[in-house]
Structures are given as structure tokens and as C-alpha cells.
Amino acid sequence: MLQVEHLCKSFGGVQATRDVSLNFPAGSLTAIIGPNGAGKTTFFNLISGQLRPDAGRVVFDGEDMVGLSSLDVVRRGMARAFQVAALFPSLTVREALTAAVTAHQRRSWSLLSRFPLAQSRARVDEILDLLGLAPKAELLSRTLSHGDQKLLDIGLALAMRPKVLLLDEPTAGMGPDERWRMIEKVHHLWRAQSLTVIFIEHDMDIVFKFAEAVHVLKYGAVLAQGTPAEIRRNQDVIDAYLGTDHHLAVAEG
Ligand SMILES: Nc1ncnc2c1ncn2[C@@H]1O[C@H](COP(=O)(O)OP(=O)(O)OP(=O)(O)O)[C@@H](O)[C@H]1O
Ligand SMILES: [Mg+2]
């Protein structure tokens, strides 16, 4: 459903993305891993329309996304969790989600829907439940913990009713317990919403436990792809991380 073919991007002399071809089947949960500077975030920027590739195609549901604005990519159903919760410090969690859901509905439903308000309320409640944020719905965004702000960012992306959700290091900056809680919520909403989820992650315990497929980037190119079990014993991957144990000693981003 999402196919990336021969994607290339350079910044001056730096080839951040080198002939990357990858497939993401509908409903899959895929981790992208790789050392710092491997081109993971650039890959997200290319497929979500933030950056234009020098060459290659990004085919989503049969349509080439290259050249579309990031807003048009979102409209086609590919959303990304940005650090936007911080932009609404004086809105409550519910107000921020309602604003996002309403904005989305206004674009896509206004002439079709007779009860937009009731629908947006139901969708906001659904998102609050999915992310476990219901008990915090009436809190101001700025008073949320770092982890809850990240959940709200994911909630704001879900307001766009995406088919594909891109998460760039959803567990970054969290302690071990909080990390597991976060990824369990991502896993839950992936299941509950039949989403295609692609997440960039440095924590190999999390990657190997949760991902169905793992794509490894190094120096902008695809070093390996496979199931967690295949990646764990792939000698190229082990060498790339300079580690020989099963957890692959990874520098934190
Ligand atoms: N806008 C940009 N302008 C110039 N160089 C860039 C730009 N974005 C990325 N790069 C370079 O491209 C390479 C890949 O960067 P990218 O941020 O994609 O890596 P990453 O895998 O996400 O790393 P990290 O794990 O540290 O987040 C790096 O060498 C980076 O310096
Ligand atoms: Mg990055």
C-alpha cells in the first residue's frame, strides 16, 4: 500500500538517502532503525512531503506522492506526530483535540454530515480512550508530562484519520517504564484502528518486541530488512552497530 522506490536525497555533499526502496503493507507495524545520521528522519521528511526527493517515487494507494505538499499528503491519509501539543499551551487536552478533529472534518465532511458536532465529540472521546488520556482531558496541555504531551501529539495526528501513522522516536527522552507504556499504547492503537504504523526507534528491546518488520538504514542506504529475528542475527546489522550481543549496543539519539 505504501511503496518507496529508488528514493534519493542529498544535502550538499551529504547523501542522506541513497536509492532506498522499501514496502510497507497495509496494516503493518514497521520499525526503522539505524545509527545516528543514518537518514531515518530524512526518510520520513521525504515520504511525508516535507522534503522533495532528488529522485525516486513514493507510491501510496497507487498514487505518486512526490511533489504533493505535506498538507496534501496528510489529506491522502499519511499523518505524522509532530511536536504540536506544545503549540497549544493554554488549551485543555480535549480542546486541542476538538480543534484538530473539527478542522479535519470541515475539510472532508462539511457538506455530507448533518451532525458534525456530535461526530467530532465522539471522535475526540475515541482518541482520548485509545491513548489513555481520558482522565487528563480537562487538563491544560502545558501541565502534561513529557510522555503525555507526546501522546497528545499522536492524538492530534489521529484527528486526521490517517491510514499511515509516522512516529519519529516516540519514546525519546523517556525513562524505561514510561517507554514501555508509550509503545504499548502505540501497539494498542495500531491494532484498534487498523493503522499502518512506521516508527523510528533507538531502543532495540522495544523494536524486537513490538515490530513485525524492521528496516535498517546506514549512511542513507538500506542495510537490511526482515523480521526482528532475522535482523537480530544479521551480521551486517551487528557490525553496523559495533556490538555483538543481542541487544546491539546503540548510541542514543
Ligand atoms: N535539512 C538538512 N540540511 C542539511 N543536512 C541535513 C538536513 N537534514 C539531514 N541532514 C543530514 O543528513 C544526514 C541524515 O540525517 P537524519 O536526520 O535523517 O538522520 P537520522 O537517522 O534521523 O539521525 P538521528 O538518529 O540522529 O535522528 C545527516 O548527515 C544530517 O546531517
Ligand atoms: Mg532522526
Main attributes?
single chain, 253 residues, alpha/beta, Rossmann fold, disordered C terminus, binds adenosine-5'-triphosphate, binds magnesium ion
Protein described:
This protein is an alpha/beta fold and 253 residues long. The protein has 2 domains: 1-77 and 162-253, Rossmann fold; 82-161. It contains 9 helices and 10 strands. The protein has helices spanning 40-47, 70-76, 93-108, 116-130, 146-158, 176-193, 204-210, 228-232, 235-240, and strands at 2-11, 14-24, 29-33, 55-60, 63-64, 78-80, 164-168, 196-200, 213-218, 221-226. A 6-stranded mixed β-sheet has the order 6-7-8-3-9-10, sandwiched between helices. A 4-stranded antiparallel β-sheet has the order 2-1-4-5, covered by helices on one side. Strand 4 and strand 5 form a beta hairpin. Helix 3 runs parallel beside helix 5 (146-158). The longest helix has 18 residues, at 176-193. Residues 244-253 have low confidence and may be disordered. Magnesium ion (MG) binds at residues 40-41.
